[in-house]
Amino acid sequence: MSLLVVGVGCGGPIPDGAEDGLVQEPTSEPGVEAQAYCAPTAANTQRVKTILPPSQIGLPRYALGPSSFVNFQGTLHFAVNYEDGRGALWRSTGTDAGTTQVRAFPATAGNFTPFLAHLTPTSTQLFFQATDTATGSELWVSDGTTAGTRLVKDLTPGPQDSTLADLSAVGNTLVFVRERPDPATSSPRFELWKSDGTSAGTQLLRDFGSNVYVSFADTKVGNARLLFVRESGGATLLWRTDGTAGGTFQLKRLDAGPYTYPSEVRSSGTLALFTLDENSTLTELWKSDGTEGGTVRLASFGPTRAVRVLGELGGFAYFTSTSYSTQYMVIYRVPLTGGNPTPVVTLPNDYATKGVALPSIDAVSIAPGGTKLYFAVNIGSEGPAPRDTQLWVTDGTAGGTTLLRRPLSLSDEYGSPLLAVADNLVYFSSDEGGKFGIEPWVSNGTPSGTYRLKNISTQGFDPSSYPREYFLLGTRVYFSAYDDTLAGQLWSATMRTGCVRAKDAH
User: Fold this and answer.
1) How far apart are CA 191 and CA 474, in angstroms?
2) Distance (Å, rounded) from C-alpha 89 to C-alpha 68?
3) For residues 366 and 369, what is the distance between their CA atoms, to the nearest angstrom?
4) Residue 286 Cα distances to 214, 263, 271, 294, 397, angstroms
5) Could you write out the three-class secondary structure of 135-160?
6) Closest CA to 238 of 175, 289, 176
7) What distances in angstroms separate CA 9 from CA 428, 436, 445, 449, 455, one per listed residue?
């Protein structure tokens, strides 16, 4: 095959506090000019507050830290889970004094794993799942105050846990999937529920029964939630719900063959792109705008390739197709209006002829309203750890597809988070080895503008901070990092206003 080599770069380290790069704050308001910000530096990347005590695990990559970041009424809310089984809901304004605990949950017998999670905000309430001694793991809600944080409903009465998944806000209503044992069969039973935050208003919307499987690969499109329901040995169905009984219905039968399942779903908020893998190893690429007529198969692929969705740019769906035989990954695009897929560029693979080295997509991020797509590629191996991990950017053209940094992480136990907040500002993590290890990095979309944000951890045999869960709120990007407190703590990087590039100064 012919290999098209694109522009690449190592993205080597430059000193902490690199030259400012002007970025634009994402905005969804038509006619409103985006605020200009400067890319963060080491000086404005700081620990917000010491919350957790030193970890007793002994391995930084396993240490717990703040997680499940959400924006609730303009304030950061997040979960804290402790190694002794305790949990707590916290909030932060970005300062030490403004970072406070909302509600604590004591450890329960035998519970030594994180259990406060799935924070899901509506405009007026914050839903989450937490474990209490009397009720087990159930649905809770908060208005952001300690007094206003309470159990919604004990769906499985007593200390037994409820298995809840896919919490999603549809307007001011929460919808979620409950999985419970079916006493009449050996199969689990899947149910779709809704909640308005009260016990009486927490109601069953649909009992799918025990002969189906509700996939956790769901997504939101507009003001509706899409769910994939696979019948046992039968069809795969796409369902839609807006949180009401009348608005919960089967949208479309996607495939009549057995053992078809969705392997990947990505949503822009107005359009969902997903793949269906069939038992025959045929893969189909679909789109859905939440309507029956707008749910359409875009392309089909044979059994010799692995297909993964990248996302939507400029009226095209972008995806990758990787040959199992040659071990090269090709970026394709197909018009959202229909048509034949066309190749954009073939990514290089230094290990393609050196044994098992199959590339795969690890993470994807597109800024709101963005025209560039950032994605992480893992080059596989015969073992669990990858041979290489790479950060790429593309504007949908061969010339605009560039390697920014390698490697990101060579661990099979830690993968870099990825967050694009603008076309020219993306947050990720990268491994330099030696005294730096895995630390937070940023890039403006060019190899020369890709640099380590800050060296946070210098502790012990593994000097890595293992950043997790980059989350944008206002002018700050929050994340969790293992630091000199020997625990994962809350950190933030602030994008500053009022700076100009030297070439723009008068």
Assistant:
1) 37
2) 10
3) 8
4) 18, 12, 10, 10, 22
5) CEEEEEEECCCCCCEEEEECCCCCCC
6) 289
7) 16, 20, 11, 11, 22
CA distance 232 to 229: 10
312 and 318 in contact (C-beta within 8 Å)? Answer: yes
Instruction: Choose among 45, 41, 44, 39: nearest CA to 25.
Output: 39
pLDDT on residue 108: 79
Res 15: pLDDT: 40
What whole-number distance in Å separates Cα of residue 118 and Cα of residue 64? Answer: 16
Distance CA 164, CA 154 (A): 12
Question: For the segment 401-459, what is each residue's pLDDT rounded down to a tens digit?
Answer: 999 999 999 999 999 999 999 998 999 999 998 789 999 999 999 999 999 999 999 87
Structure tokens at 116: 């406060």
Question: How many angstroms separate the first and last alpha carbons of the chain?
Answer: 53
Q: Taking the mean position of all CA atoms in its chain, how far away is CA 224?
A: 19
* pTM of the predicted structure, to 2 decimals: 0.90
Determine the Cα–Cα distance for residues 341 and 334; give it in Å rounded to an integer.
4
What is the DSSP secondary structure assignment for residue 34, as one 8-state letter?
P
Q: Can you read off the two tokens belonging to residue 394?
A: 């593309």
Give the C-alpha distances (Å, rounded to integers) separating 390 from 8, 18, 112, 237, 354: 11, 21, 34, 35, 18
Secondary structure letter of residue 495 according to DSSP:
P
Residues of the chain under the 50 pLDDT cut: 1-22, 24-36, 112, 500-506
208: how many CB neighbours lie within 10 A of its CB?
Answer: 18
Rounded-to-integer distance, Cα 443 and Cα 428, Å = 8
Whole-number pLDDT of residue 277:
82
- The reported pLDDT for the residue numbered 489 is 98
Cis peptide upstream of residue 407 (ω within 30 degrees of 0) = yes
Query: Helices (H) and strands (E) in the chain — how many of each?
Result: 0, 39
- Please tell me the distance from the alpha carbon of residue 87 to that of residue 216, in angstroms, as a whole number: 25
Reported residue count of the chain is 506
Please choose, from the candidates 146, 187, 140, 185, the residue with its C-alpha nearest in 3D space to the C-alpha of residue 164.
Answer: 140
Put residue 355 in one of left, alpha, beta given phi > 0 → left and psi -120 to 50 → alpha.
left
